[in-house]
Amino acid sequence: xxxxxxxxxxxxxxxxxxxxxxxxxxxxxxxxxxxxxxxxxxxxxxxxxxxxxxxxxxxxxxxxxxxxxxxxxxxxxxxxxxxxxxxxxxxxxxxxxxxxxxxxxxxxxxxxxxxxxxxxxxxxxxxxxxxxxxxxxxxxxxxxxxxxxxxxxxxxxxxxxxxxxxxxxxxxxxxxxxxxxxxxxxxxxxxxxxxxxxxxxxxxxxxxxxxxxxxxxxxxxxxxxxxxxxxxxxxxxxxxxxxxxxxxxxxxxxxxxxxxxxxxxxxxxxxxxxxxxxxxxxxxxxxxxxxxxxxxxxxxxxxxxxxxxxxxxxxxxxxxxxxxxxxxxxxxxxxxxxxxxxxxxxxxxxxxxxxxxxxxxxxxxxxxxxxxxxxxxxxxxxxxxxxxxxxxxxxxxxxxxxxxxxxxxxxxxxxxxxxxxxxxxxxxxxxxxxxxxxxxxxxxxxxxxxxxxxxxxxxxxxxxxxxxxxxxxxxxxxxxxxxxxxxxxxxxxxxxxxxxxxxxxxxxxxxxxxxxxxxxxxxxxxxxxxxxxxxxxxx
Length: 539
What we know:
By secondary structure, the chain is mostly helical. It has a domain at 473-539: Orthogonal Bundle (Arc Repressor Mutant, subunit A). It contains 29 helices and no strands. Helix 22 (405-421) runs antiparallel to helix 23 (425-441) and helix 26 (481-491) packs across helix 29. The longest helix is centred in the middle third of the chain and has 18 residues, at 345-362. The mean pLDDT is 91.
């Protein structure tokens, strides 16, 4: 090896130790062109390529390392390279090729004594089982591979095994045990005991586990830790997009909508190329949510479409967009279908709030009641403050729709307190609008005005234009008594002919009233007028 090549290798190794992944990749690659790298440096080149976002190159180099280890009759190192390739593929959502590499690794291990590498293959196969829904079968496999990690003092293996076991417990409803195990995993990760590839996987998986059970406190803390970890490695690519998605979700809840939108756009860019990650759809969905809330309906439509094309269901956001557009029939159909497709309580709890809101808008208060009751049951089971706030908000809205303003007021006060404790200004403001309606119904216009003014201020600060339009619009839209009467009959589902017969008017007169109603309320259709009537308590 020439002096120049040796110098480049020394620089590459130093860059690798400093976690300067781009520099390490370029320097190792330069040295490799001059003289093919030895196995240790070849493995470092593969990891540097992976962590700097060169997925195809990392697979190519790890494949070289795998074959070199086989040639040297070193099956354990050959398995490590094969497992690294499979893990990278697996966490990008490419399960079939990942399983192919795990199968190859199993064949290489045939006839070998007990080893940590056998624990690694058990772990990856258990992850595949868990994500396929076979959680009960996966958990004991993770436990076994964890014991293997302890026996061979393999910190990375022990971390991944406990990570999987903790997620299995969370998914089986044993959240306290599962989250305690995930916290233990993160102690090792944040203290630097775990190598970068597996640390990144642990960060993303643990935060996903916190989101699964709506544990905002943990999600905030671990997302902040992930942000610091990513920021300490400017060249890091694979986990930065996922980090941005988590940050976006939390910033949206905290009311930092502009920062959240920028994080969502950056996540879309990071995750869309050159290798498309399976979380790309979540990034587009999150961007669509922010655009919808800000009244950027055309942009939101595009983002939800991109989310769907990337494998992320666009519900309930797309249905709420349709509701905001006054297309209640479409919103109702989307949410009814989406609920019929999911049975798991956590997944249903993400759709039910939109379902309750849409059923109230459509006048189907009985269905809204069923949805609110189910949300309440899920919140009681999961015991997360966030979900308790969601359920209390839905219950208060239904009580209002049922005409029980007194009970609604008490429930909505509890909801507002929960959202304030969670530092969620938009959700608090939405509840304050309902509180204003309840006070109005109870004959307290002064308190109603205070609640509505408070909500208006938050909506203005956030840029929540659709909410501002609803709150600023005159309560009756300037309708005459006769027009308000016609609107109530439209909302009941009557045609113009039926309304004419009911009110002893001509169809021509009814048609004129309908036209005036659409003009004064600023809505495009009879369905949108129905939504307006329910939102503004005209029924």
